[in-house]
Specification:
By secondary structure, this protein is mostly helical. The chain is 58% helix and 11% strand.
Length: 163
Amino acid sequence: MPARLKPVIKQALYVAALLPVCAFAGDIYKWTDAAGNVHYGDNPAEDVNAERVHIRSRPSDRARKPAASRSRAETATRNAASTANGENQETAQAAGPTPEELREQAKEKAQKCSEFKKRLQSMVQSRRLYREDDNGERVYLDEQEMQTERDKTQSKVEEYCNP
């Protein structure tokens, strides 16, 4: 093998080894800004409450679909077997949530409370509200629709912010 091809082959091997890593490198986040606009991206702003979006890929080749359904069937069989032995799970669930789970639930509730309060404040301060249609275009709400959205958000604030 010629000496000048060795570095090229070496670089090609490095790139080939790193390609699978690139597919798993990024997370996608969803957040709502102060104006009530929903944003998606890999770098959310630090001052907003962003949630990670779980993206599921589907097989692109028709030949892979039967294999995927077989693996789902195997998973269902395993789950059925584990629930047959699930008496221990039932007794654990009957005991109720653990203190750690309760803290986590309280934390999530507080985050949602804060999020809905900000959203309601934004809705009250905004003169015009809109939603996006199926084509991604803005459809502005009339007064009645705006009040309905404000009422829905107010009920969410009451749901998450009251003890």
